[in-house]
Amino acid sequence: MSETTRIVADPSEPTIVITREFAAPRRLVFTAWTTPEHVAHWYGLRFLTLAVCEIDLRPGGAWRYVMHAPDGSEYGFSGVYHEVVPPERLVYSEGFEAMPGHEYVVTLTLDEQDGKTTLTSTSLYQSMADRDGHLNSGMEAGSRETLERLAEHLATLA
After folding, report:
1. Which range marks the domain in which residue 81 is found?
2. 73 in Cβ contact with 58 (< 8 Å)
3. In CATH, what number is assigned to the domain containing residue 54?
């Protein structure tokens, strides 16, 4: 797999699967994904500033990110960790704070082979309507840019 982001929405399931390979060991990818000092360098679109990054990395622990836009708008996302298995797996809820009641569950796996890590993120939505609403919100472009930024950040750590 090349270092591109693949996004698949199964037409018969309320899921989105995102896959991306990184030229870094999974322990480093896991650390970059779960440590606020690293997340601040790569999370979100380039024109946004990650103003809040809180991570309580344990089952039952909460996480929260708030991004600021140049026009003063804020975008908050939060959830709770259900499973934490370093450096290979996370299961957590995620929701856009402006739209409560539409949370989804993300299962993130990191598989390493020959020093490269394949990240697979499977989001399970409460309904097809929620999944399609997320797709139509621009999440594909946002996910691609965010994971590209993560790849760039990982390159500075290797």
Report:
1. 6-157
2. no
3. 3.30.530.20
